[in-house]
Amino acid sequence: MRIGIDLGGTKIEGIVLDYQGRERARKRVPTPSGNYQATVVAIRDLIDGLCTEAVVDEKTPVGIGIPGALSSATGLIKNANSTCLIGKALDKDLAEATGRDIRLANDADCFTMSEATDGAGQGFRTVFGVILGTGCGGGFVVEGNLLDGPNAVAGEWGHNPLPWASDAERPGPECYCGKHGCIETFVSGTGFEQDFL
Predict the structure, then answer these.
(1) What is the DSSP letter of 6?
(2) I want to staple 116 with a disulfide (CB 3.0 to 4.6 A). Which of 90, 127, 139, 191 is the partner?
């Protein structure tokens, strides 16, 4: 069995797959907004519920796609639009909470690798995947290999400034990263909500 979790800004979704890739359980819960400890508990409880439903061995590891990246220098989360995760040892905290081996990877990288392996990008030499949710992100796969770069953010495009902004558009909306006018402030669920509500 395999356990996968998608940690998003508004929802946490989990799935259990058997070795033939068949779905054995799926659950979705809301993401506790801005509360790190509550997020850890929500993920723990989601995993427990999935494992009970699908009868999963207690040693089965969990793979989690996260907004942001795990810093190779500090072992802490960085660049997450769910800002309560930033500076936290999410993998260690979840391992302690669940008693399972936890593996973290950037959600856009996970999506892009999946599409390059057996999705819409299968058979292509180069795949750039884009996700739009609470934020926006991206990943690169070249010849079947993920390119994450020295800072684990190679495909991330949401914190570049909006190109060709007019004077009326400057400095642009404030972003959680502390800058103004990031693409993510326009092209994301959050950005669309700001424009159309």
Answers:
(1) E
(2) 127
pTM for the structure as a whole: 0.90
Q: Is 45 helix (H, G, I), strand (E, B) or coil?
A: helix
Contact 138, 130 (CB under 8 A): yes
Non-local (6+) Cβ contacts of 54 within 8 A are 1, 16, 24, 25
Q: How far apart are CA 181 and CA 170, in angstroms?
A: 7
pLDDT tens-digit series, residues 98-108: 999 999 999 99
In 3D space, the residue among 135, 127, 73 whose CA is nearest the CA of residue 107 turns out to be: 135
Rg (CA), the chain: 17
Extract the tokens encoding 31.
């993401």
Q: How far apart are CA 60 and CA 39, in angstroms?
A: 21
Helix-helix angle 36-54:90-98, to 10 degrees: 50
Structure tokens, 154? 């190679």
- The answer to whether 149 and 167 are in contact (CB under 8 A) is no
